[in-house]
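REVIEWER CHECKLIST
Item 1: Sequence provided? yes
Item 2: Single chain? yes
Item 3: Sequence as submitted:
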Amino acid sequence: MKKLLLALTLAGGVLALSACNQGGSDTVAKSDAGDITQQELYEAMKDRVGAQALQQLIFEKVLSEKYEVTDKELDAKVAELKEQLGENFEMALAQYGYKDEEDFKQTMKLGMLQEKAAKASIKVTDEELEEYFGTWKKQIKARHILVADEATANEVKAKLDAGEKFEDVSNTYSTDEAAKAAGGDLGWFAEEAQMDADFLAAAFALNANEVSAPVKSQFGYHIIEVTETRKDAKLEDHKDELKEELVASKMTNEKINEIMEKELKDAKVKISDKDLQGALELGATTQQ
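Item 4: Structure as written out by the authors:
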């Protein structure tokens, strides 16, 4: 989610600025008080969003020479973001200044180009991979049903023992609304996760597909089922997946800026407009 939302930057001025820069004096607005020329509009926009717009245009041109984002990849990323944001997708576009989905895709494409440049530069050692695998392997995937009292927990356990579907019982009984929406699923987590200690102890004592007796915690009573473990996983079978996760964990804003500085230096970018000399000072273009 974080990487996808990174692309939601205010870039509406990019196309507008480049469209206005025709170098002419055509009138774009008339009034009794005076006319506004195309050049005046361009200068005003340059003052306000010029550095941001130029930076984005340069980035896309430089990165597109070395990396490729296909329409299929772009559509898949947008579809993923739509799924995550649900009915809030259109509202998010409007909030960040995009006129429509196609407008947003142009900025998303740049974000994906930067991500590809970062992935090509960030290295993961075998030692890092081994260490990460050791932690990853110990995680479990579990789901739970949370209720207020032990009597209700026993009732829930009896229904599960009788063969009722976990997600159906969760939907009827669970007070954990967030997990309930996913059938009680809590995803993968480690023994050091920021969860109740009693809950963690009970969960990690279970085998895959085993359902607990009622477990008391500070939140109430849980019925827990471990749905998957990784104890038999082999590094060779998950190497690419884990490497990608490690690379993503190293992809900080500072690292991306460092990589972009190198890309711009390699491309020998020079800005001739003295008013926009600061456009390539990464991280310094949010305020004009």
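Item 5: Key structural point noted by reviewer: Residues 16 and 139 are 49 Å apart (CA to CA).
Item 6: Recommendation: ____
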